[in-house]
């Protein structure tokens, strides 16, 4: 891991109509870290990932990405080189061939003209085909995306990220819709690729088991606050039990 600070968050706060979703969170994430974001439903995981991805503004606080205020990155090419997002629902265009979904990773770099032309004659085909081979989808480039299984579609989304090559990858529940065997495969592959590419990964997860198996650091959120932020090996069963404990009123 390098000592370069990829994300520096200071006092991040987000309110929704009077309700606090994030309450003055502060943390630093270095290049190469594999961070799992865990915590009960409603703890603020998605809100935090959306704020880092600049998909939703914060109410207050400071976010720096690779040493620059997040707001200094113009949306589009510059931001796409820094941050890539992968989601549970994959965000793929079902009726298109796999190769076009993979090459969508180049959209912001290419601009509209080259992107549209690429739909007729795929540009930088080799790049897409190599990415597909790396995620185990050799020979699937010209299949229609919607005919692939859920696990294969998540691999297409990963190949798209490899073509985009962002420095930081944010994944919001990337395996929630997959069965356990597929989920394990996808997380193994995602963390392997991210490590090889020296990228930084922040993933929200409902499964503590996967967080422990594949991630080097676990940040636990509860009621919009950091409940703990520890290297994985320091996370005890007692801490986890406390994190997910139901309040007495929740049982009613
Ligand atoms: N658009 C919104 N409008 C109002 N409240 C919202 C909105 N988005 C999130 N919230 C609230 O903010 C809090 C944090 O939500 P968030 O989705 O970030 O939690 P989460 O940890 O990702 O939950 P889950 O594990 O269920 O996905 C919750 O109380 C939620 O109800």
TrEMBL record:
Per its record, how is this protein called by name?
A: Phosphate/phosphonate ABC transporter ATPase
Keywords assigned: ATP-binding, Cell membrane, Membrane, Nucleotide-binding, Phosphonate transport, Translocase, Transport
- Organism of provenance: Neobacillus vireti LMG 21834
Please list the residue ranges annotated as the ABC transporter domain: 7-248
Pfam families per UniProt? ABC_tran
- Give an example GO molecular function: ATP hydrolysis activity
Q: What is the lineage of its organism?
A: Bacteria, Bacillati, Bacillota, Bacilli, Bacillales
Write down any Gene Ontology CC term: membrane
Gene3D superfamilies for this protein: P-loop containing nucleotide triphosphate hydrolases
List the InterPro entries.
AAA+_ATPase, ABC_transporter-like_ATP-bd, ABC_transporter-like_CS, ABC_transpr_PhnC, MetN_ABC_transporter-like, P-loop_NTPase
